[in-house]
From TrEMBL:
Name of the featured protein: Cbb3-type cytochrome c oxidase subunit
Main localisation: membrane
Superkingdom as given in the UniProt entry: Bacteria
Cofactor note as given: Binds 2 heme C groups per subunit.
NCBIfam families associated with the record: ccoP
Region of interest: Disordered: 1-20
The protein's annotated pathway: Energy metabolism; oxidative phosphorylation
Domain (Cytochrome c): residue spans on this chain: 111-200, 207-290
Length: 293
């Protein structure tokens, strides 16, 4: 609480006091500048006009509309629709034209790449990274090593239907869990991991790798899908093991874990989630990243 004292002149500033004092500290009489007060009053008056002219006050089941009927939501909706209308012909061409025709049309190609980049950032970057560099379990889309093929049509099919997704036309591959299901012993798995490392010229134990080669090429084992030379088979989604590009890691432990568990990630099918033009733009963008065949 302030104590009431006589109005005096502060000896330090030469300014009159208001007569109020708090714990021995006197309040100086320094009112707001007149221009500031008039501006403040004008803003109050202006606010009443704003309340009347524009949507302002929330009600039980809506809000006051204002005399001008202004709606920023309507403006944004109309602006977005105008953009869609302006892009409609380009999107129709994207869906209708072949990949070769799109590449031969600089305007259409640039439109597809720009739209694909945006769609990738919104939908794919969470797993593959903003730069499509991938991460353990998620493919790097910049290199030239493709599990299911890197042509435009192959990429388009992967984007449309996904990998091991719930779409009836999804791409399906299933590596056996050789350890979990008891198909190989721990020592066989360790030897096979050494042989797999040898395929990519990684440091390995020669004797163990030779034993692993016999397991790898045995009946019902790895060569059935990856081939005796380990170069893979895109028809069944078997990776090339000689390329030294690894989805789950190249260490002995990582390779042994892959053989033991089989892994098998899921990529969603974007058909039904994205419109056909966006899906095609995504495929064009991914193909352009540097590894498209």
């Amino acid at each position: 609480m302030a104590d009431k004292h006589e109005q005096t002149v502060d000896p330090h500033t030469g300014t009159a006091t208001t007569g109020h004092e708090w714990d021995g500290i006197a309040e100086l009489n320094t009112p707001l500048p007149r221009w500031w007060l008039w501006t403040f009053y004008a803003c109050i008056i202006w606010s009443f006009g704003y309340w009347v002219a524009y949507p302002t006050w929330p009600l039980v089941s809506g809000y006051t509309k204002g005399l001008l009927g202004y709606s920023e939501r309507t403006n944004v909706t109309e602006a977005l629709q105008a953009v869609r209308d302006s892009q409609a012909k380009l999107n129709e061409a994207i869906v209708k034209d072949s990949f070769a025709d799109i590449k031969a049309n600089p305007q259409l190609l640039n439109f597809a790449l720009a739209g694909g980049k945006v769609a990738f950032g919104d939908n794919c970057a969470a797993c593959h990274g903003r730069g499509a560099q991938g991460s353990p379990g998620f493919a790097n889309l910049n290199d030239d090593n493709w599990i299911w093929g890197g042509t435009f049509d192959q990429i388009l099919q992967t984007v449309r239907y996904g990998i091991r997704s719930d779409h009836p036309e999804t791409r399906i591959s299933q590596m056996p869990a050789f350890g979990v299901d008891g198909l190989l012993t721990p020592s066989q798995i360790s030897d096979t991991a050494e042989f797999v490392r040898s395929l990519s010229k990684l440091p390995h134990d020669n004797a163990a790798a030779e034993r692993g080669k016999a397991v790898f090429q045995g009946d019902g084992a790895c060569a059935t899908c990856h081939g005796d030379d380990g170069k893979g088979n895109q028809e069944v989604g078997a990776p090339n093991l000689t390329a030294n590009i690894w989805l789950y890691g190249e260490t002995r432990e990582a390779i042994a874990n892959q053989i033991t568990t089989g892994h098998g990630g899921v990529m969603p099918a974007w058909s039904g989630r994205l419109d056909p033009a966006t899906i095609k733009k995504l495929a064009i963008y991914v193909h352009s990243l540097g590894g498209g065949q």
